[in-house]
Amino acid sequence: MSEDNAGKDTSNSPESEVSISASLQGAAKEEKYSEKDSDLEISKRKVDILLKATGDAPIMKNKKWSVPCDRTIGSIIAFVKRYLKLQESDSLYIYVNQCFAPSPDQIIMNLYECFGADGKLVLHYCKTPAWG
């Protein structure tokens, strides 16, 4: 503090309002950048899924896969069909924890947060309806 302002209250001065305004704008910019960074981190984040065959479905050699967390169940179904060399017209059902079939537009991260255990999401696949 300078000697001129030694005994004065400067909390309501125009200079202090400008500095407060500038610091708030800086904080808002930092928050905006941190939101973008967190979106990038989420899109790079991967979820381990364990694919188990059920019923008459062929068994996959590699059962554990790491997939981006923003993928959908529909993309997993398409991947498993390609991996098993099934026809496009063949049905493939995916079940979470032997309970229910999630909709094809369901995001993997949502399922992992609700039903994941031991660091992975267990999905069962079959060619005919099995559960739920």
From TrEMBL:
It comes from the Eukaryota. Keywords: Acetylation, Autophagy, Cytoplasm, Isopeptide bond, Membrane, Ubl conjugation pathway. One of its GO terms (molecular function) is Atg8-family ligase activity. Residues 1-39 are annotated as: Disordered. Coiled coil: none annotated. One of its GO terms (cellular component) is endomembrane system. Residues 8-24 have a biased composition (Polar residues). Pfam families: APG12 (PF04110). Its main location: cytoplasm. It is a peripheral membrane protein. Belongs to the ATG12 family. Ubiquitin-like protein involved in autophagic vesicle formation. This is Ubiquitin-like protein ATG12.
